[in-house]
Every structure is written in structure tokens, then in C-alpha cells.
């Protein structure tokens, strides 16, 4: 029980450092600007025809390869300083806290910050639906975009809205499943970055994942059809609700949970063997 308290203490300490940093504030502002720009035509359509918007853009926004990779790229930049090493952690070691506790605390901190980041994306989806915000079923706005009626009226949406999602899911159900799956993706990215940064004692993980995200963004705009076919292997397909039914969501989550478990075990092994430094 004492080790659990120690892990929680380290996790909260690390999470506070990341969340209350200038970097987090800047990344939050950029995230909001991206989502606000994506929702601009949706708001214009709603205002022109006096329609209400259910704040359910997240399942479509996070399934869009462009948008989701921008969101993930910002998350990678947020975690560019992991594993955190500072004087306070030296003090934690002096208090007798084991290396494994510190490693587990770091992992838990990544999960906490990832959860805050995903919750923030939902908050932005609500804010960008103002002043036409309402709650309920999908409504005419999303239905019109999915059926291309809005496009015929001159209002194009920056991300695809699938009619299958509207048919198979309720709005809050779609938001919950999409946010949950994206959170698991964020955890996988964070752990990969942790391992590569920690082993090389540099920014290799940040560089690799940044390039990885940019490649998918590039493939969306490439004119070469053969390259565009690679988009079907994009990690975002795991978060695209139009590719599976609600009852199949646990299978998608299991793939990522297994990856998280394996990567977490790798982190702890490397920490225990002093391959990843915990202090300066």
C-alpha cells in the first residue's frame, strides 16, 4: 500500500509539472485554434439556417487523419521532455523511494496528462459549437453534412462526417468511445516516446513520432494514388467509428491495451536496469 501511495505521489507531481507549464498552455491554445478553424463552416451553416449544433464533432475530428495527427503531434511535443529529471526527484530517491516506483509513477503521470489532454479536446468541441450549442440527438446539422446537403448549399466541412456513425451510435456514445480509443492511442504514443527518449537520453522518441505523424499528414495530400492507399493502414483507423459497430469497440481497445501493457513492462525493465535515468 505504501508503494501505491508513492507511485500516486510521483504521478501527481510529474503531472502537475507538465499541466501547469507554459508548453501545455501554448499547445492548448494551438489545439483550440485548429478545432475552431475546422468548425467554422459548421457554425456558419447552423447560423445561416437557424439550426442548433450538438457538440459531437469529436468522433469525426479524431477520425480525420489530418486533424488527429495534428492533435497527436502536439501531444508528442508536450511529452518531449519525458522522462522528467529534476532536483526534486533526487530528493524522492533520498527519501527511499525505489527506482521501480519512480518508473511506475512516470507512467501513471503520462496517463493522467493524456486524460486531461483528451478531456480538453472535448471541452474545445463544446466551445466551438457556441453560440448554437444544444444537447440531444444528432440533429439536422450533422445529418445535413453527412448527406452532403450542406455541401450542396455551399458549406463544406473540413472533416468527413459519416452517416454510418449517425446511424449506429448515439452522440454521447460516439463521443465516449472515440475519446476513450484516442486516449489509448495517446498512451501508446507517450510510452513509445518515453522509451526512445529514455534509452537515448535525448529526443529520439520525439523526433521519430513527429516524423511519423507528419508522414500521414503528407499522404493525405499526395497526388500519388499508390501512396494514398497506405492511409488504410493509418493508426487512426482504430479510432474511426465508421469502420466498426459499437459492440466491436472493445476489440479495438484491446489491441491498444495490450500495446500499453507491453510498453509499460519494457519501461519498468529498462528503468530497473538503469537503462533509463530517473535523475540528473
Quick tags:
280 residues, mainly alpha, single chain
Strand content: under 5%
State Rg.
20 Å
Number of strands: 0
The largest sheet, given as strand count, sense and whether it forms a barrel, is:
none
**Helical residues, percent:** 55-70%
On the 0-100 scale, what is the average pLDDT? Answer: 86
- Span from first to last CA? 28 Å
Uncertain runs with pLDDT below 50, 5 residues or more? none
| Class based on secondary structure composition and strand pairing | mainly alpha
- If helices are DSSP runs of H or I spanning 4 or more residues, what is the number of helices? 13
Order of helices and strands: HHHHHHHHHHHHH
Oligomer status: single chain
Shape: elongated
Provide a quick synopsis of the model.
With 280 residues, the protein is mainly alpha-helical. The protein has helices at 2-19, 22-48, 58-61, 65-78, 87-94, 99-127, 139-146, 149-152, 163-168, 171-200, 204-221, 225-228, 249-272.
